[in-house]
Amino acid sequence: MKFDSVIFDLDGTLWDATQAIADSWVPVLTDSPLVERIPTLADYESVMGLEPKPLMKKLFPQLNWIDAEPIWKKACIAELEYLNQHGANLYENLEEILAALSAHVKLIIVSNCNEGYIESFLHAHKLESYFIDIECAGNTGLPKSENIKLVVERNKLKNPVYVGDTLWDYEAAIAAKVPFIHAAYGFGEVPEVPALSKPTDLIPLILNKQE
Q1: Which residues of 134-166 are buried (b: 16+ CB within 10 A; e: fewer)?
Q2: Beta-strand relationship, 133-136 and 15-16
Q3: pTM higher than 0.85, yes or no?
Q4: CA 21, CA 135: separation in Å to the nearest integer?
Q5: What is the pLDDT of residues 161-177, one digit of tens each?
Q6: Could you read off the pLDDT of 37-73 as tens digits, one per residue?
Q7: Cβ proximity of 194 and 91 under 8 Å
Q8: How far apart are CA 160 and CA 138, in angstroms?
């Protein structure tokens, strides 16, 4: 199969923003009397890729969504302000990888993040030119599988592949009937699928498909 496009997950696939997110959330969580403990970095890593309700439930199991939602919204505002200004940790050689791939295939990002999060990644690291489209749950209210279908349809993709790091990403790609490549350097484990031990492994895997 010759792939004509690569649809990327963001967290754990293109960058690791856990430390930046943890730092940006501290003032919001400290100010809330409902928050009993500040999550650890490992706690944040365990929820990367989840939609808001299950994410907050896992981080703060004592809170119902009525109480958790205002905290989530305030934290998201603080998070976007921080990421827009400071960015986060890009995976090694990311821009070189994107430049090499975008010369041959279309690149897109689909994430379960809140509105504006992908834009903060692109803006902070000046990577807008490599991607033809982005979509997220915060924009559409849809699960990742439906957002994958959405970008496939509106960009008229014939042979896309989804690259993500978690089992949730794999399940979303399968539900969308899109082949999956596991970013094994990220946050999750997905057995018995094509896997990347490091980001640069994607270049020969995709470009060899074009020959």
Answers
A1: bbbbbeeeebbbbbbbbbbeebebeebbbbbbb
A2: unpaired
A3: yes
A4: 20
A5: 999 999 999 999 999 99
A6: 999 999 998 888 788 899 999 999 999 999 999 999 9
A7: no
A8: 23
